[in-house]
Amino acid sequence: MKYKQDPDKYTLDQRQIGCRNSWSLQSYDINEAGQVFTYICDLGGLPHNEQLHWKQYNESPKAGISERAFRTDFKAEWDLSYEPLSELKFSLEELSKNKSDFWICRDKSLNSQLNYVVSNSIKEWSDEIQTLVKLVIEGLNYSYLKKVGQSLKCYNPNLGSIKLLGEILKTKGITTQELELIISPLEEMQFLRTKFSAHVSDTTENDQIRRKIINEYGSLKSHFRNLVKETDKSIKLLLELISEKF
User: Fold this and answer.
1) Is this structure's pTM higher than 0.90?
2) Does residue 79 belong to any structural domain of this protein?
3) What is the DSSP letter of 72?
4) 75 or 45, which is more confident?
5) Per-residue pLDDT tens for 219-244?
6) Do 188 and 129 share a structural domain?
């Protein structure tokens, strides 16, 4: 958690953690039980205080190491399995590269800040959703969408970026099913960001939302991973359709 909370000091990616100008943990991953794990040999390379930090969270394994870690670290093979977070970041990079009028990354640091939820903390989960919204939704170019909407005569000044994008796609003849696949994940993350932002005080409603999510997905961790997966599908389909129709 402390690594996520201080992105200016720590660099956190899918398999490595680094402390600026100080140390780096060469390998870590998350197993099927949602536990973060690393290797003793890698922990041995950390400063003593950092080793003590890891030690205080040590617990018995509830599952073996991840399939990805076994494949890359022990079988010395490339991991070619689908990994939602990496795929989403790649999809957004392709969208920016090919359709920068539609979407562009407003803050490059968001790519490294966005990571999976690894605990059952509501704060960690809501913080990652905030980062996901900043990266994905705030990258939509409203000025360009407005121009396109006006040319298609579907612009409404009362619509935000997501709904305006939906109207544009609808006017362009996108099917209802395709529209749902693109817009739903964006609306969900925006909704959750609004409900769980720091200034919202309706804890009763938020608790109902949280319990509903856990009932459906089993945990906040699983929900966030699924949201990332659906967002990746959304961006991939959006890139495909706007390449054909715009």
Assistant:
1) no
2) no
3) I
4) 45
5) 999 999 999 999 999 999 999 999 88
6) yes
